[in-house]
Amino acid sequence: MKKILATRRVQIRPLFREDWDRVLAIYLEGMATGLATFETAAPTWEKWDSAHHNFARLVAVSNEDGQLAGWAALSPVSSRAVYSGVAEVSVYVGNEFRRQGVGGMLLDTLIEQSESNSIWTLQASIFPENNASIALHVNRGFREIGTRERVAKLNGIWRNTVLLERRSQIVGLG
């Protein structure tokens, strides 16, 4: 039911340079929770653009007023050719659109587009306190690989992350 409601409320389309101001605002909302990223400063468009694949960059747009409700993108995990089919997932939903199915729609579309672009493994590194994000990923076929203990500091405090991965049932089987 939530997915049907969300489908009526938002549509998914490619993320364009012109979307950056709202994408950045949503990223900053996530950053402010302390549960979304180790980053403490927002990147420029140029830095963000160079760190992400040029495919599977998505935004969810409200059908009611055209406002960006969320965004998702993939970044390479390594520059080594053997890892060309492995990507890190980022999914962010604006505060006023959370718990409405937007994250699921973004992640479903991100998975489809990753497979269309020869990605065989998606991974996500999520703070263990971010139960909603972990559940979102698990509900889309990600499995918990383990906990990375004290992997990095956020504001001077060591933090753990839960590492999840999703193996494609289409790409990388041979």
Task: Give an overview of the whole structure.
The chain is of the alpha+beta class. It has one domain (2-167): Aminopeptidase (3-Layer(aba) Sandwich). It has five helices and seven strands; from the N terminus they run αβααβββαβαββ. The longest helix has 15 residues, at 102-116.
Output the CATH topology: Aminopeptidase
Would you list the SSEs in sequence order as H and E? HEHHEEEHEHEE
What structural class do helix, strand and pairing data support? alpha+beta
Computed CA radius of gyration, to the nearest angstrom: 16 Å
How much helicity do the residues have?
25-40%
Low-confidence blocks of residues: 1-6
The largest sheet, given as strand count, sense and whether it forms a barrel, is:
7 strands, mixed
- How does CATH name the architecture? 3-Layer(aba) Sandwich
Features:
single chain, 174 residues, Aminopeptidase
List the helices and strands and how they pair.
Elements: H1 2-9, E1 10-14, H2 20-33, H3 45-51, E2 58-62, E3 68-76, E4 86-93, H4 102-116, E5 121-126, H5 131-138, E6 143-154, E7 157-167
Parallel strand pairs: 4-5
Antiparallel strand pairs: 1-2, 2-3, 3-4, 5-7, 6-7
Question: In summary, what is this structure?
Answer:
By secondary structure, the protein is α+β, with helices and mostly antiparallel strands. The chain has 5 helices and 7 strands, in the order αβααβββαβαββ.
